[in-house]
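Hi P.,

Sorry for the delay on this. The queue was packed all week, but I finally got your sequence through. Input first:
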Amino acid sequence: QIAITSGPVVGTSNASSQPQQSEYVDLGLPSGTLWKNKNEKGYYNWFEARQKFTLESLPSDEDFQELQEFCTWTWNGNGYIVKGNNGNYIVLPALGRRGDNGDLKYVGTDGYYLSADPCGVYYSWIFCFSSIDMDISNYGIYGRLSVRLVMNTR
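Then the structure:
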């Protein structure tokens, strides 16, 4: 199950555990998927993300499920430090989302991340979280959310 903790993550002496050392971070996931060390700038709806980023680089809902299952999640007050079993980690900030009128909502409390996978005609799968909960849910395809890219190595 998911381990959600609060407070700092104890670092390692392994230089490869520092996300800023490489554009993509190996979290030791069974699939071999690598996660980018930072979000893409801005907020995107599903169509914009599909046009700007290749489908191979947007995470699937299975990628998010694997991240939940095989990593330790520590709330840092503004998002999660997501640490793999190999000691490497990424940070998923709680950057909120853009509302229908363009207003930024829930910054610092909630994170909303686009998935490559559609969910019917008007929805796509997303990964969302707060300090006490996380879920893979569906969300309207016109909503503007954060994007974190992946690289599949297999």
